[in-house]
Structures are given as C-alpha cells and as structure tokens.
Automatic annotation (TrEMBL):
The keyword Signal belongs to this UniProt entry's keyword annotation: yes
Top-level taxonomy: Bacteria, Pseudomonadati, Pseudomonadota, Betaproteobacteria, Burkholderiales
Signal peptide, first to last residue: 1-22
The keyword Signal belongs to this UniProt entry's keyword annotation: yes
Gene3D superfamilies documented for this protein: Bordetella uptake gene, domain 1, Periplasmic binding protein-like II
Keywords of the record: Signal
Family named by the database record: Belongs to the UPF0065 (bug) family.
Source organism of the structure: Massilia timonae CCUG 45783
Protein name in UniProt: Tripartite tricarboxylate transporter substrate binding protein BugD
C-alpha cells in the first residue's frame, strides 16, 4: 500500500514534470541521429523532414550521422540518449531486421524507443558502375553467376537495407558474392561512381539523380509497380526476378521515457512535414512519397515495427546471415 502510494506520488511528479517540460518544448536545438553516413538515402530523407519539422517547432533540428554496423551503432547511441525530446532517431527497415541479424544488440528495437511515426516507404533500385558489361537484369544475373569470384556488391553493413536487398538478390540469383560494407550507401555510391565496386541495391533517394545523369547503370526497381520518376526502369518482378519486392520504410523515434506530450508535439510536427509541399515535391523527385498522415503516429509505427520484426525474423534466420 505504502509502495503504491509512493509510486502514485512519484508517477504524478514525473507526469507533472513531463507536462512542464512539454509546455516550453522545444527551447533549444534538437539533434536527429541518422545511423548512416552523410549524403546517403536515409540522410536525405532525414534532412528534408528535419528542416520542415524545425519550422513547425520553431527550433533548429540538426542531423548527427552515426554510421556503422548497419545502423546499430547509431541506434545504440539514440537508445542511451536523455529522453527529453532533444535527441531523435530516424531509422528505416533496419530497425526491424537487426534483431534477427545480430546475436546481441546493446538495445532493444522495441522497448528502448518511443515511436513517433512512420515517414515514407522508399523503393530500391539495382544499379551498377557506368561501364558494367550487362545491359539488363537478365544479363546482369548471367554475368554475376559467371564471374562470382570477382564481382563485388556494395552495401551499408549488416542490418542496412542495401545488405538486406543484396541478401535477397543473392538468394534469388542462387549465388554468393563478395560484399563490401560501407558506413552508408552515400560513400558506397562514390565508389560505384569511381568504379571501385561493381553493383548494389539502393534506395531511389540516393540513386535517382545518378541514374538520370547516366553516370551509373540501372537494372530494375524493387516495387510492384514502376516508379513515376524513373518511368523507363522496369520492376524486377516483371522480368528476371518474379515476386521480388522490398521497400524501405522509415520511422522516427525518441529514446524510451520521452514524455508523452513531447512525443505528441513531435508527431504533430512530423505530420506537418509530410504535408509540406516542398517535402512532397522533393520526395516525388526522388521516387517516393510521404505515408498517409494517419500512419505518422506513434501507434502506427509501434504496430508496423512489431509486424516487420515478425516478418523478417524467420526470413533472415532461414538465410542464415548473422553477425556476432
Ligand atoms: N539507408 C542507408 C544509408 O543511408 C543505406 C542502407 O540502408 O542500405 O546509407
């Protein structure tokens, strides 16, 4: 009884201080952790959303790139940050695949975070260096199979979307390739442009302008339907790889314990950013679109994350790709 009373007093105090915190929130610069290198696809999404959210919240949101280990280093940093609304964490599908890929993680993908909302679901594209010999996906598969000891596949580390897509591609093609990990597909793209690596599967938010400029070759998109901004690029599923489909959903989180009124203020600002004509236009130019705003809520992200963990766990275990 006494304990219950104590909790009631402490909980009320915590709630009260949460409210007080929320009333003058935000009163200083907010940091958004992106768990990949600057200049990559997740960084691009984060910078667009952060700028627009910052306008709504009347405070600047700066991006901190904490790349490495497929997003898990940045996730660990975000999980340990003070739960005061001044550290946010933007991650993608990797938040749901890492628990199955890593035997031990220094955080829990679900319980270490407060979900804020879903943001966008970005298509991926299979792309290669400009002078890669294959002219379409069928030829790429034939070439890769015939040269599997020398072809290199670039990705952003175990747990990244490019790694996941590469794993699915290798399974679908029936080959095992030499893979080259980077801290993000931003730096991987630089090496693809320079011809140091052969091919990768990466988000349209990173590949669209390079495909359009003709500096890299594109072979297919991983969505069910063609992406309007890349109308000439066929879907993988319609050609050489029937049923091949993967999208890179993104979500925004805060560390566990961030007061609910603060989370609500952030979710409101997130929804406003997804209605921002500039964000919609830039997303569209980059081959994607915001989720419907009723998905940009803590409940929708919480449900989606759990579903995705349940979906990918068995697929990854079957593929047998683990890190220690
Ligand atoms: N989204 C990552 C990045 O921004 C790449 C990946 O997940 O493959 O670099």
């Amino acid at each position: 009884m006494k304990l219950k009373m104590l909790c009631a007093v402490a909980c009320l105090a915590a709630f009260g201080s949460g409210l007080a915190q929320a009333q003058n929130y935000p009163n200083k610069t907010i940091t958004m952790i992106v768990p990949f290198a600057a200049g990559g696809p997740t960084d691009t999404v984060a910078r667009l959303v952060a700028q627009s959210m910052g306008t709504t919240l009347k405070q600047q949101i700066i991006i901190e790139n904490v790349g490495g280990a497929g997003g898990t280093i940045g996730a660990a940093r975000a999980a340990k940050a003070a739960p005061d609304g001044y550290t946010l964490f933007l991650h993608h599908i990797g938040q749901s695949t890492a628990p199955a890929l890593y035997r031990k993680l220094p955080y829990d993908a679900i319980t270490s975070f407060e979900p804020i909302g879903l943001i966008t679901d970005v298509p991926m594209t299979v792309v290669a260096r400009g002078n890669f010999p294959a002219k379409d996906m069928k030829e790429l598969i034939t070439y890769v199979k015939a040269n599997k000891d020398k072809v290199t596949y670039a990705h952003a580390g175990l747990g990244s979307a490019s790694h996941l897509c590469g794993m699915l591609l290798q399974t679908a093609m029936g080959v095992e390739l030499t893979t080259v990990p980077y801290k993000g597909t931003g730096p991987a793209m630089n090496d693809l442009l320079g011809g140091q690596v052969d091919f990768m599967c990466d988000q349209t938010t990173n590949t669209t302008s390079q495909i359009k400029s003709g500096k890299i070759k594109a072979y297919g998109v991983t969505t069910k339907t063609v992406v309007p901004s890349l109308p000439n690029l066929p879907t993988l599923a319609s050609g050489a790889l029937p049923n091949f489909e993967v999208g890179v959903w993104h979500g925004l989180y805060a560390p566990k314990g961030t007061p609910k009124p603060v989370v609500d203020a952030l979710a409101n600002a997130l929804r406003a950013s997804l209605r921002d004509p500039n964000v919609i236009k830039r997303f569209s130019d980059l081959g994607t679109e915001p989720v419907p705003t009723n998905q940009a809520t803590p409940e929708a992200l919480r449900t989606h994350l759990k579903q995705q963990i349940d979906l990918w766990g068995p697929i990854i275990k079957k593929a047998g790709a683990f890190a220690d």
